[in-house]
Amino acid sequence: MSNPGQLAMSDEAGRVPPQQAVFSDLLSLSYPASKRTTEFYPQNGSVFSFSGKNVIEIPIACAPSQWIDLSNSYLRLRINNNNENADQAFSYVSPHDLIARWQVLGTNSELLEDVQSYNRVARMLCAHQLGEDGLVYNSHLGRMNPSANWAANSDPAATMIDEGTNTTIAFQPISGIINSGKYLPIGMSRNRSLTLRIELDTVANAFYAENAAAQLATLDDIVFVCDVINMSDTFNMRFRDMLDSLGSINIHYTTYKQYQDSIASGTNGTVLIPDSSRSLKSVFTIFNDSAINGANQDCLMLHNPALTQFQYTINSQSYPQAPVSNISAKSLDQCFATLHTALGQLGSITSRVASDRTSYYAATASQSRTFAIGICCEAHNRSSNLLESGENLSQSTAPIRLDLQFNSNVTNESVYTFTLSDRLLSFDAAGNLSSTG
Length: 437
What we know:
Elements: H1 4-12, E1 33-40, E2 48-49, E3 55-61, E4 66-81, E5 90-91, E6 99-105, E7 111-116, H2 118-128, H3 131-141, H4 146-150, E8 166-171, E9 183-184, E10 193-200, H5 203-206, E11 208-209, E12 217-231, H6 233-246, E13 248-263, E14 268-273, E15 280-289, E16 307-314, E17 317-325, H7 327-342, H8 357-360, E18 373-376, E19 400-406, E20 413-428, E21 433-436
Antiparallel strand pairs: 1-12, 2-12, 3-10, 4-8, 4-9, 4-12, 5-11, 6-7, 6-10, 13-20, 14-19, 15-18, 15-20, 16-17, 16-19, 20-21
């Protein structure tokens, strides 16, 4: 909606926002608005732990005339190390490590977004989409220095949260709803709120601990901060008129869905992924060594299980056309290229990882830190105006198939596949927030 001609047409038509509106663009049409930063607190308690009360629910409620802008939002919390004994400090690589599952709920608690194994997909994105400086930046938001705990089996004591101390961190969650780039008319929704639900992971996954014993870690002083917009009565009246005329508006966003499998010791395996997205954009797969669960270990570490060949099959089509094979010797660059094509990064100067070639491909878990595979399956150009540009799996009777081959050193592996798909956040005249896709 940034084209001047389109703005003029909108103005001639009564300044009614279009059905798929980037509402911030419409503020140039002389509608007065004011913004203020607002804090939202959990409704189900004030102290949360990683082994007991581990689900945080934060309602985002507004007055009837208000909208919310999530583009500059962040989550702030305090991490408490309640251990009293020595040698029970802990740390983490990324502030996202604390979160096992991220959910956004709409009207009647309908799931608008549900990212399981959130910290694992966040680890992959921080390493591959943001690059090394992006990982450092995000980790510094979490008050940690990743260089101290990025190398395997190193002691990150210099960045530890010591016994009886705490630290406050602030970071923006990785979320399609939050990063949609749209103002949301929450004040006009039927319950005038949406809800963030955050499930914490186990201590073993969330923290890099000096001692393997159970850690007494809690979170408190939890706040979600975002901007609340007061629109003019004229704008809100026009918006309601548009809803009455159209019935609903659709706001586009993308989100991840997770599918977990395992590969036993052997030389090959097949993973079936029962995704039914209406618009599948990309597929990503990472591996975790099931044996990494002890002291001074990064349990979320991305791991290369000596993979030698892979190929995805979607709607009877092969991605890539021929299997990526002989990875260790000749096809490492193709493996890297298909992943960064899926991330939309290959043609960008920011197409880099938080490590080097040796780290991307390494035969042992203690050496590999950033290994991931992925493919792009968008059916239309990313820059087009289509809201849904991916492969349609809604009518497919066959799951996505991932064929893997390993060398003889493969051990028991946990396989996590994440599908990235288009979704539409629908807001109707009755004030219901729902999601399709």
